[in-house]
From TrEMBL:
The protein's name in its UniProt record: TIGR04283 family arsenosugar biosynthesis glycosyltransferase
Originating organism: Halomonas alkaliantarctica
KW Metal-binding (keyword) present: no
Segments forming domain Glycosyltransferase 2-like: 11-109
Source lineage: Bacteria, Pseudomonadati, Pseudomonadota, Gammaproteobacteria, Oceanospirillales
Keywords: Cell membrane, Glycosyltransferase, Membrane, Transferase
SUPFAM superfamilies xrefs: Nucleotide-diphospho-sugar transferases
Locations listed in the record: Cell membrane
Length: 232
């Protein structure tokens, strides 16, 4: 039996929304993994560009979902057939040997994430990346663009992503921490720093910290999502 005929070892769930300009390149980079027992599921949240059509020949499954990242990822997990999950943003690239590192880590840990390197033009991006990694290592809270991975059984045990419009990754981390702290892999995923480049590094840093602080203070994710949209 060839590796392509074996049950998948890992399912990668990719939520997308209007990613047509970069999606083909991103998914093309994942094709060698599909031949190594990795399943790729793309969950479109109602794109009005050609994201779903572009993904069709480059994914094992393309699903349609209401627009909201948490719902999209939960739907992808529902259709995943491997015993382990990796939630990957559409603008995040995996490091070398990522799959083997994940599967090795999951032999001893329930969940984890990678360190992150933000790519872009701002000279502040290396500092932001370092701060994200240190904060996550200290608090045990991961963000979605760090490539969160876990056993399917772990994901189900905590009820999946809370279906809220923002901070779903923070909330899932809190739930997972009740089971165990994450393994923090030093290998770096590379995520786009377009948010910082487009809206300004300091403005975005202040916005992110203000949103996280207000969430910690108990402000609803719905209200914070509105403030996030208004600030952009």
């Amino acid at each position: 039996m060839s590796s392509a005929e074996l049950p998948p070892r890992l399912s990668i769930v990719i939520p997308v929304l209007n990613e047509a300009t970069t999606l083909a390149a991103h998914l093309t980079g994942l094709q060698p993994l599909r031949a190594q027992g990795v399943e790729v599921l793309v969950v479109d949240g109602g794109s009005d560009d050609r994201s779903a059509q572009i993904a069709q020949p480059l994914a094992d499954r393309v699903l349609n979902s209401p627009t909201e990242r948490a719902r999209q990822m939960n739907l992808g997990a529902q259709y995943a057939t491997a015993p382990a999950l990796l939630f990957l943003h559409a603008d995040t690239q995996l490091p070398k040997n990522a799959i083997e590192q994940i599967l090795q880590a999951l032999k001893r840990h329930a969940w984890g994430r990678f360190d992150i390197k933000l790519s872009g033009y701002s000279g502040w991006l290396p500092v932001v990346s370092w701060m994200m990694n240190q904060r996550s290592r200290l608090t045990g809270i991961a963000t979605g663009d760090q490539g969160m991975f876990m056993h399917v059984s772990t994901f189900k045990a905590v009820g999946g992503f809370p279906e809220q419009p923002l901070m779903e990754d923070v909330e899932l981390s809190k739930r997972l921490k009740r089971l165990s702290r994450p393994v923090c892999l030093k290998a770096k995923v590379v995520s786009s720093g377009r948010r910082w480049d487009e809206f300004g590094a300091w403005k975005t840093i202040r916005l992110m910290w203000r949103l996280r602080y207000r969430y910690w203070r108990g402000v609803s994710a719905t209200q914070l999502a509105k403030e996030y949209r208004d600030a952009r």
